[in-house]
Design brief:
Strand content: under 5%
Number of helices: 10
Helix content: 55-70%
Number of strands: 2
Structural class: mainly alpha
Order of helices and strands: HHHHEEHHHHHH
Radius of gyration: 21 Å
Largest sheet: 2 strands, antiparallel
Strand order of the largest sheet: 1-2
Amino acid sequence: MNRSPAISDELIEHLEWAELALEGDPTATEAVMKMLRSDDLVAALRSRGASETEAADILGDLAGDCFGGERAKGGLHRLLGRYNGACPLPAFFRHVAVNRLITLKRKQALRPEASKGTDDDEDPIDRVPSPASGNAADETLIPLLRDAVVRAFQAVDVERMVVFRLVHSYGVPQKRVGAVWGWHESKTSRALDALREDLKTSIIAEIRRADPWLQLEWDDFLSLCGESIDLFAS
């Protein structure tokens, strides 16, 4: 199990639970299963359009992938063994579950079209690529998230973008940046706060425009960014 650098005490505790559960420790296994049975996890799926049956099926499969089936390289179960402490375990499970719901809904949306004009014995739905099991920021989401960030930043006017980059990319103190425009430090701070809020709103709007089924909130987006080392890779 690969650990993320600089993680909090809570995340260390969740990593230990995951590792012990993989080794068969009954207390840790029960703690993980309690997370998988939580009302919050069911609510996350229901709020995104899952029926009661769909939510139960997804969470049942999730538990099976944590504790059953084939083991990944290194002897770790294919899902729980991929948890690396980048976010709390409940958030990791929520992202995986929601992504599986999105895949299910996409397949359901494609089914009427896919059933037309095919003489093959193969179910057309089987040809629809689905995300890798257990990969919270899966390969289908990475380009979508990246494009949303790029489009949001492209919409920012040049002056605000310069201020943002001087502070966040180059570490120039806000007081010095504001002095270039004759601003008081408080005005610079307000301008940056406003831009960050605008970017948050724009990024989420771009994600929902690109994929209406992907009903992410800002905290979900941040967690997915933290889980993916490929999100901003060139």
